[in-house]
Amino acid sequence: MSHIENLTRYTASFVDELVCSGLTHVVVSPGSRSTPLAVLCAEHQRIKEWVIIDERSAAYFALGIAKQTNKPVALVCTSGTAAANYFPAIVEAYYARVPLIVLTADRPHELRGVGASQTITQINMYGQFVKDFQEMALPDRSPEMLRYVRSSAARAVRKAMQGNPGPVHYNFPFREPLMPNVHMDGLWGERTGNCYNSVYDGKKRLQEQQLQLFVQKLATHKKGVIVCGPQVDESLGMHLTALSEQLQIPVLADPLSQLRAGGHGKNTIISTYDAMLRSKELRAKLTPDYIIRFGAMPISKNYLFYLEEHEDVLQIVVEDNEAMREPTNHHSEYIFADGSLLCKDVLPLFRQVKRDDTWLSKWRKLNEIVMEELEDREADALLTEGKAVQHVLQMIPNESVIFVANSMPVRDLDTFFTPNDKQMTVHANRGVSGIDGTVSSALGVAATTDKHVTLIVGDLSFYHDLNSLLVAKQYKIRLTILLINNNGGGIFSFLPQANEKKHFEALFGTPLNIDFEKAVSMYGGSYELVLNHASLEAALQKAYKISGLSVIEVQTDRAENVAWHRELFGKIEQRLLKNE
């Protein structure tokens, strides 16, 4: 048996089984040792390959594709630091529950630990941040080994999607020569029957007795609160709001909950709870009897204060699969079941329980007061960061996607994203909430949807991932970017560090002083600097008609932004306490 034939049959069988198991996208970063995987992925007609030079950007781009498609995406790179550059995105994918299949090429065993070039220890290199690791055998085309390699590919897809989705890592040692023979007869091998290890996996559901216990626990309480944090099930809104209407309790909906927009009912949706809960006095007056949370912990820090101050309140956390996401470490009860099915199953049982709308009416009245203040434009001749986000929400087309960066943009989205009926999906990298790879992930989303995608990003996050704009140019990806440039880390101006004037600018403010127009132009994008409300609206209208990359920059002052936010929230708190 020739080495090339062993290499080709073995690797082709792995790639073909990935496809059979449902994989359609692979993101490749160029390198020599990964040649067998890269070439055969590119050769397979049912795979869309994306070639991205920078591995860190490539991994976040794959993360964006996986977020948008809800399917595993494969990553292929060579050995050494190329694989290490995947690490930030893998950590994000693990905590955000995004399925990635990481395929790293490696030197064969005889070249490890002996000083061979471009060789590092890749065994379990991602540690606990992957759901599965496999060191693959050396290529061989014997029937036993072809069954093994197909079974391994099927396992990779299954493990990435099983339970809470996440990344898996499969390491391939390859000996030279590395170029497979793509002209080989029957390149992809023969398959009889279904894919290897076909799995029929259903959603978790509570039994009737468990549902009855759940209802009995809550039946005597009237002041409940449903909380929906970041989550991706777009069908949850219909079932969760139906349950809240039956119980006559509010739904505190995070901006990433997929509940603030869409066709479901919104009579119980409270979108301004972060502003409401800034008041310690109001948090005390809004003491609940119980809290039921779906999804991850909300972005709002004031909601966290609300939890801390009501430690004795019954809290029930609903997770699709077993997991612990309760950073307060309070006593909590967990329900491991599909959220939509739980709401649907328990709804008929609550119809026999009498309710009144006093508690819900209180929340709704406060919510309306905050929304009135947020919509007030008279005092905002200046184009502020919050108002810029508000413009996007008003101007964005129906059937759209928003990708929002961490730090200030996601918090402004939380404040100004009031409920509407547009069909809109909202994404963010909130697994570990870093600024890494934000533009890359947004491009990954935009590359795999016909919907218009808008990225709201600050200048530091934009700069941190600036080289990803090459992907937009390379693949002519349509993406509108609202770049909010306050010349530094604006969120730190809200923190106690801002009181330390001596070192603040160097350590936290970190002004960039960059002309972003030149960078956007270098990558062939459209750029416009806007100075007021009218020019921003006009620029957005124009951008949504452009087929490629469009960057709209809003320049703000960090000190003015802090003062504007504090004045706004101070005014809101005064009105809330006056009308409570």
TrEMBL record:
Residues 12-124 form the Thiamine pyrophosphate enzyme N-terminal TPP-binding domain. It comes from Pseudogracilibacillus auburnensis. Residues 422-554 form the Thiamine pyrophosphate enzyme TPP-binding domain. Keywords: Magnesium, Manganese, Menaquinone biosynthesis, Metal-binding, Thiamine pyrophosphate, Transferase. Residues 219-404 form the Menaquinone biosynthesis protein MenD middle domain. This is 2-succinyl-5-enolpyruvyl-6-hydroxy-3-cyclohexene-1-carboxylate synthase. Its cofactor is Mg(2+); Mn(2+); thiamine diphosphate. Signal peptide: none annotated. GO terms for molecular function: 2-succinyl-5-enolpyruvyl-6-hydroxy-3-cyclohexene-1-carboxylic-acid synthase activity; magnesium ion binding; manganese ion binding; thiamine pyrophosphate binding. Pfam families: TPP_enzyme_C, TPP_enzyme_M_2, TPP_enzyme_N. Catalyzes the thiamine diphosphate-dependent decarboxylation of 2-oxoglutarate and the subsequent addition of the resulting succinic semialdehyde-thiamine pyrophosphate anion to isochorismate to yield 2-succinyl-5-enolpyruvyl-6-hydroxy-3-cyclohexene-1-carboxylate (SEPHCHC). Its EC number is 2.2.1.9. The gene is menD. One of its GO terms (biological process) is menaquinone biosynthetic process. It comes from the Bacteria.
